[in-house]
Design a protein that fits this description.
It is built from 9 helices and 10 strands. The chain is an alpha/beta fold. The structure holds S-adenosylmethionine (SAM).
Amino acid sequence: MVCIVATSDGDASRPWPELAQDYERARSREDSLDRLVEWPAQRELLGDVTGLSVLDVGCGNGGKLAELVGDGAAASVGIDVSGNFLSAPPPGLEFIQGDLSELDSLPSLAGRKFDRILFLQSFGYAKDPVRTLRAARTMLTDGGFILLTRTHPIRYAVERSERNGTSLGEEYFSTDRFSYAHSWNDQISLTKRPYTISDLLNVFSAAGLWIETTHEPQLSEAAQRRYPHKQEWLNKHLGILIFKLRPIPGMHY
Ligand SMILES: C[S@@+](CC[C@H](N)C(=O)[O-])C[C@H]1O[C@@H](n2cnc3c(N)ncnc32)[C@H](O)[C@@H]1O
């Protein structure tokens, strides 16, 4: 196996132009957890989007955002570093190739406001997570919220403890960066900064956000019966965390 460890400078987003298509292929599989668990839960938390503007940060090919525009969202923007977007976006949807670490200095976003800002499995690629979230916070309309998802940190601790013959706690609290060959393309290795639940919560506070809702979505009973291998995976790795975040009133940066 040829592994490209593409992140020696610590930039975890560098392999994405190569991985983007593998991700979309994996996501479209009938038994993908994004399709069965994550997107339905994300969609439910977004609720009625009629007439709302949505910014999807790290939007992938923009398929989820196109669905929201189909459900009535207006003046919406998808940003992704890969530039691998749907070729014919519906009216009211614009794609921008850009880096989420530079959200506060992207000319096409200057002065714009959004009712919903999404970071769906993309927030981990921010070089300075507090800066990125603060920038998003300033782009929210009154009454707007951020929907942010991250892989449960226990998942990576479980994988590393198995690989290294160590305990769960040792790996969960380790601060060393770690690399792993990706299941979507074993030619590409991603390097990640480890994080704990407290790291995540402290980033939200430092960015002036409070958590309205947290959700740990799971398979429906019907899907558990149909895809037992996915339930087995979730039993071991837990899945993702979803946070609905709102600005703390009166906090300005
Ligand atoms: C796991 S995929 C999630 C895609 C989509 N949000 C979804 O939920 O299906 C992560 C996405 O983050 C994007 N990404 C990674 N680093 C980025 C960066 N620095 N700036 C913008 N997008 C980035 C990748 O190109 C990829 O599309």
